[in-house]
């Protein structure tokens, strides 16, 4: 077993980037519109019926401005559209266009293939165990006392 000494959040971040890099490269090779990692992340947290920019920012863990910039780029690329929110006269919902939905379906197929490639590399049981651990409910993040000073 290869041990790097890195903490779990760093390793999880590396794993996310591995999937993201594979996804973006496959979409680019297929001739899809180029999207940034932030834009790809936005697509992943978007509800089918639409989502507000504020909610997208919260789900992505970014500022509202960052989410708005990602939305703007995807609207310009024809992958997203803004529509009035029927529950609020002031807000707008962001949702996939027909082209955006097609691209999203392609991305989901690519991610299934990338996951299978990972299973081929590290073993089906390992991927299954990883998925099972990540799907368990972890509860709220703990509030820990500060570490004692030596």
From TrEMBL:
SUPFAM superfamilies: Winged helix' DNA-binding domain (SSF46785). Residues 5-139 form the HTH marR-type domain. Pfam families: MarR_2. It comes from the Bacteria. Transmembrane segments: none annotated. InterPro entries: ArsR-like_HTH, HTH_MarR-typ, MarR/SlyA-like, WH-like_DNA-bd_sf, WH_DNA-bd_sf. Gene3D superfamilies: Winged helix-like DNA-binding domain superfamily/Winged helix DNA-binding domain (1.10.10.10). This is MarR family transcriptional regulator. It comes from Streptomyces durmitorensis. PANTHER family: MARR-FAMILY TRANSCRIPTIONAL REGULATOR (PTHR33164:SF57), TRANSCRIPTIONAL REGULATOR, MARR FAMILY (PTHR33164).
